[in-house]
Design goal:
The chain is an alpha/beta fold. The protein has helices spanning 11-22, 63-70, 98-105, 110-131, 139-147, 149-164, 174-177, 203-210, 225-229, 241-244, 329-343, 352-355, 362-375; strands at 2-7, 27-31, 42-45, 48-51, 58-60, 83-85, 91-93, 194-196, 214-217, 232-237, 254-264, 274-277, 286-289, 306-315, 324-325, 348-350. It contains 13 helices and 16 strands. Bound molecules: flavin-adenine dinucleotide (FAD) and uridine-5'-diphosphate (UDP).
């Protein structure tokens, strides 16, 4: 008999196991995939750590989380600076900053950029004034009011419609609000204090977190539910909460991504880890070149080969990997029904991206799992 059964060896379950072990509690971790790590798992291909379930960049301003992870593994200096290839065939720096404005309009100073931005925003601002709209009602209105038509058409519209599978005027405004707009020459995608990729990829971090726990791979909780429930006093469940309750209120929805991964016989395919394709005519949203997450400068040429992944964003159906919760009204209220059941569960806690139906980044997932462990 263990103190804890942890269903799912992803970042949430592994962090919880680490904290429980630190408190002298015994843990059995079961994982349905043939490897631990959940979606942060890396596979080594031709000496390159390939982010098998999508590019993962660690970033946080939470000092406690940063101290925690760097106490376990070392991080490299990777800084995410994606580049976008636009419908007009040109390349632009992201997020929207002085480099982007120079490339788009040729302006060289913040004052020149500000003047053009004001002109660009004028159409949307005037329209909102005429129609008596106080706040943008959808992503299209938000983007036009934030950055204007040129950038909307070249860098936002096509990418967003591919990513979400819906027109921009049917999407919520908040999706675009988190993209920084800067009047400095700064291509760093994140505003966080700390950023990087664990040296050697994410697997060593997961292995450290799982040290001292008994881990069984290739075991789906639902294949032998009663057996697993009898193995421990208490349970942390990080799988799908609707599945735990046999979908009794209905199924939660997700967006997913299909990856087409290719090994190329050349050392440097695109010169950057991330290139976004913002043209609606190109079927994929972006291409990831994995070696750039861990080799910098001319070290890229030490390996004569490279691995790239094209990402195709699609609607999720049963049997696919459930990546992004769709936190719209229908799904959110469905989740609340499941959460009410979960709150009455005497022995089971629910956590993580699937257990809480919440789009956690890695750092908040770690912080949340640690808080939960402190509580128990
Ligand atoms: P998961 O990683 O999904 O782990 C859950 C585990 O439970 C899985 O291994 C699953 O197989 C297992 N499981 C499920 N059901 C069962 C069952 N019935 N029996 C046994 N095992 C089960 N975060 C960032 O901070 N930066 C990024 O750049 C970033 N990029 C991302 C890109 C993509 C495409 C995706 C999908 C996510 C990204 N994230 C990123 C988020 C990051 O992946 C999550 O924060 C993290 O994976 C959360 O871990 P988790 O344990 O909650 O979920
Ligand atoms: N976005 C865009 N063009 C880009 C990159 C992002 O229009 O080249 C928009 C898109 O709507 C996306 C949102 O900005 O959903 C947030 O982008 P982010 O990269 O933060 O999304 P993530 O993939 O991390 O969810």
């Amino acid at each position: 008999m263990y103190d804890w059964l942890i269903v799912g060896a992803g970042l949430y379950g592994a962090t919880f196991a680490h904290e429980a072990r630190k408190r002298g509690l015994s843990c059995l971790v079961i994982e349905k995939r043939r490897h631990s790590g959940g979606n942060i798992y890396c596979e080594t291909v031709d000496g390159i750590n390939v982010h098998k379930y999508g590019a993962h960049i660690f970033h946080t301003s939470d000092q406690e989380v940063w101290r925690f992870v760097t106490g376990l593994v070392d991080f490299n200096r990777y800084t995410n600076c994606p580049v976008a290839k636009a419908p007009n065939g040109r390349l632009y720096n992201l997020p929207f900053n002085m480099n982007t404005f120079y490339q788009m309009w040729g302006c060289q100073t913040p004052a020149e950029a500000e003047a053009i931005l004001a002109e660009q925003r004028h159409e949307a601002v005037e329209r909102m004034r005429r129609e008596g709209i106080a706040e943008p009602r959808n992503l299209e209105e938000q983007a036009l009011a934030l950055i204007g038509r040129d950038i909307y058409e070249q860098l936002i519209q096509g990418y967003t419609e591919k990513q979400w599978g819906r027109p921009c005027n049917e999407l919520p405004a908040f999706i675009i609000k988190r993209l920084p707009v800067r009047l400095t020459f700064d291509n760093n995608y994140f505003n966080d204090l700390h950023q990087g990729i664990p040296i050697g990829g994410y697997n060593p971090l997961i292995d450290k977190l799982l040290e001292g726990a008994d881990v069984r791979l290739g075991e789906d909780f639902f294949d032998r539910r009663d057996y697993w429930m009898a193995q421990a006093e208490r349970v942390l469940f990080t799988g799908k909460i609707d599945q735990f309750y046999d979908y009794r209120f209905g199924r939660l929805e997700y967006r997913t991504v299909r990856f087409e991964t290719e090994v190329l016989n050349q050392p440097n395919y695109q010169g950057n880890a991330v290139i976004n394709y913002t043209d609606a005519q190109v079927p994929y949203t972006r291409i990831i070149e994995h070696k750039h997450f861990e080799s910098f400068g001319n070290a890229v040429y030490d390996n004569p080969r490279t691995v790239i992944s094209r990402e195709y964003s699609t609607e999720w159906t049963e049997g696919m990997e459930p990546y992004y919760p769709v936190n719209d009204h229908r799904n959110q209220s469905l989740y609340e029904q499941y959460r009410a059941l979960a709150a009455q569960e005497p022995r089971v806690l629910f956590g993580g991206r699937l257990g809480e139906y919440k789009y956690y980044d890695m750092a908040p997932a770690i912080a949340s799992a640690r808080r939960l462990a402190h509580k128990i």
